[in-house]
From TrEMBL:
Keyword Cytoplasm: no
Protein name, as recorded: Pilus assembly protein CpaE
Organism annotation: Sphingobium rhizovicinum
Pfam family name, one: CbiA
Coiled coil: none
Taxonomy, superkingdom: Bacteria
UniProt keyword Magnesium present: no
Length: 429
């Protein structure tokens, strides 16, 4: 019964339910519902008690009309209704008590409108139209918490960047209760929807093919809801079908996300930096996901250097993922010396948790609650949000390699390769 979190609210809700006590209201509501394109059979007999019982076992609708004529304690009954209503439901009440104080108390408790019975068709239409407008209105995030955009980039294939992106989006939406959009820009092999046991749909491919269609209504219809506060836009385009785009569609999508959500998380394949550098123009925080390996160090340096030159406004977080409990290929200390900056968060490798997450169709962060992996994921989210809130603009986008620097000057590959050969020879002996 709070304000809707975004235009359209939860994806699987019915648009309208009604619970009324008398035949006249029943017939009138069915007729007006049909006029508005809603199913007349969603108008039920039974009033407030039936509404509470029904909504305790079914999803709440977008707009709920409830008759309070038989209610002995309207305010207490409204509180009972609020306990079974999902956030975002717009409630219209009706009753026979003509009392200004009751009206004010009901509105203060979250009711959108109160109609005095008997009401007419025009009065009902106006109330439903206003409720629909309230539901479709974008949620106001408030001036103190502007939209934040986060990009997740893997330095190498297989470092777990998509797992980090889905976990970050889930944490922002579930733990921080921030309406969040997750955009998976791997249009052929993206796994964000798969990781949450969802069908990706055609939303992203439709956007690429018809960028002129992108608006608030398109976003509402195209995105797949993982929860009331998390929506995903992804694709599973045929691998025989190249996606030819100048990136304009992606930019428009991000603009619409700014209007409809508080946070956007972009799962950004590293090759997109080269093809569509403009995607980084408004990114607040970039999470560079890597492993503590020789190749990971090399490509972390390259990506950090690119970000410094092409997206100086973004604050960079380096996430070392899947760190084995034994000795990694490169120690954390040596890795940090090579990239000339610290690793912000280290996420340990846990095969059991990773396998369980895949089997359950849940994010790594959700599955790992209460473990070291889960704590690291929460720390990652807090680091990212803290970077946005930081006042020191000089710390923005700190990357390691200077433009034109030789990579060999940042990491002694020859020494590391020589050490690797000695270790190999020792094992063979």
């Amino acid at each position: 019964m709070n304000a809707p979190w975004k235009p359209g609210g939860a994806g699987q809700r019915d648009p309208f339910h009604a619970f009324v006590c008398d035949d006249h209201s029943f017939d009138l509501l069915r007729a007006v519902a049909a006029e508005m394109g809603w199913a007349p059979e969603k108008v039920n007999k039974g009033g407030m008690r039936n509404a509470v019982q029904s909504l305790s076992i079914t999803a709440s609708p977008q707009i709920l009309f409830v008759d309070m004529s038989e209610s002995g304690d309207p305010l207490n009954d409204i509180n009972s209704l609020a306990e079974v209503c999902e956030p975002g439901t717009v409630v219209i009440a009706a009753g026979q008590v003509n009392d200004v104080r009751l009206y004010r108390d009901l509105v203060a408790s979250g009711i959108q409108d109160y109609l005095l019975k008997p009401f007419g068709a025009d009065q009902l239409r106006d109330a439903l139209a206003q409720a629909q407008a309230v539901f479709m209105a974008p949620r106001d995030a408030g001036p103190e918490r502007p939209h934040c955009t986060m990009a997740v980039i893997g330095t190498r294939g297989g470092v777990g960047a998509s797992s980090i992106a889905t976990s970050l989006a889930w944490l922002l939406s579930d733990k921080k209760k921030r309406p969040t959009a997750l955009l998976d820009l791997d249009v052929h092999f993206g796994t964000n929807a798969l990781a949450m046991d969802l069908e990706p749909g055609r939303g992203l491919t439709d956007a690429i093919e018809n960028p002129s269609r992108i608006d608030g209504l398109f976003i509402e219809r195209a995105m797949v809801r993982a929860s009331d506060t998390l929506a995903i836009l992804s694709a599973e385009a045929p691998i025989s079908q190249p996606m030819l785009t100048d990136g304009g569609a992606f930019y428009q999508l991000l603009e619409e996300f700014r209007l409809a959500f508080e946070c956007s998380v972009i799962d950004l394949p590293r090759h997109m930096l080269i093809q569509h550098p403009h995607l980084m123009a408004d990114v607040n925080v970039t999470l560079v996901v890597t492993e503590l390996t020789l190749a990971g160090a090399r490509d972390t340096i390259r990506i950090l250097s690119w970000l410094k030159s092409n997206a100086p406004q973004t604050r960079v977080q380096v996430i070392a993922n899947r760190v084995h409990p034994g000795a990694p290929e490169i120690s954390r200390k040596d890795f940090e010396q090579s990239i000339e900056r610290k690793v912000d968060v280290l996420i340990p490798f846990d095969l059991k948790i990773a396998s369980q997450a895949a089997k359950l169709g849940k994010t790594l962060a959700e599955t790992a609650k209460g473990s070291k992996v889960g704590a690291a994921c929460v720390a990652m989210m807090n680091e990212a949000l803290g970077a946005i809130d930081a006042d020191d603009a000089g710390a923005t986008g700190k990357s390691s390699a200077k433009k034109g620097d030789s990579l060999l000057g940042k990491i002694d590959f020859k020494a590391m390769l020589s050490s690797r050969r000695k270790d190999k020879a020792a094992v063979e002996d």
